[in-house]
Amino acid sequence: MTHLLHLDSSARSRSFSRTLTGLFATAWRAANPASTYTHRDLVASPVPPIGEAWTEICDHLLTHRITDIDRYAEAVTTPARRAAWATVAPLLDELVAADVVLIGAPMYNYSVPAALKAWLDQVTFPRMDLSGRSFVVASARGGSYQPGAPRAPFDHQERYLRDFFAGHYAVTDVTFVTTELTNALVDPVLADLRPDQEASHAAALAQVDELVARFTSAP
């Protein structure tokens, strides 16, 4: 039995990234009726920023060379740390339990939403090893950041997340599903790019179907 953790971080209730994650989650659950599923909306229920007590937990883990996630609670030795851990523990439990982590992450100001960054900060401690898990990131971007596009060098979203998952979690199975040029639907200056936007979104929808088939096919 597998477990899917589904995170959304778009400020829009009807967004392209939420559409993509919703389609993936619905298809995944239909194909895996015996499996389990957790959805966390990081906008509707924001995760608070880390505080000093969180850093003390992190320092304790480093000092005592604790590498086993199941032993992280050993660092919770003061009232302030217990309060911090009350926030961390359910988030970390959801992440560790997941086989597939589905993240809706629109590009905001060339990077990720603050809501997602707060979650990443909370669930990341020294020497975490989540290898063997798969991450799927559903992204939406106002412009085009494909290789060769003028703004490609400004893409600090995909590179950041890939480096983060590999560097902190030892996870390299990361797939991005991206709808680009969404601003063409609202900005008259970009109206001539609407066909390109539609093509990008259609390709993303097809990729969702392919990914669901990949994760639900029999070994």
Automatic annotation (TrEMBL):
Its cofactor is FMN. It is an enzyme of class 1 (oxidoreductase). One of its GO terms (molecular function) is oxidoreductase activity, acting on NAD(P)H, quinone or similar compound as acceptor. Keywords: Flavoprotein, FMN, NAD, Oxidoreductase. The keyword Secreted does not apply. SUPFAM superfamilies: Flavoproteins. Residues 3-183 form the Flavodoxin-like fold domain. Homodimer. Belongs to the azoreductase type 1 family. This is FMN dependent NADH:quinone oxidoreductase. It comes from Longispora fulva.
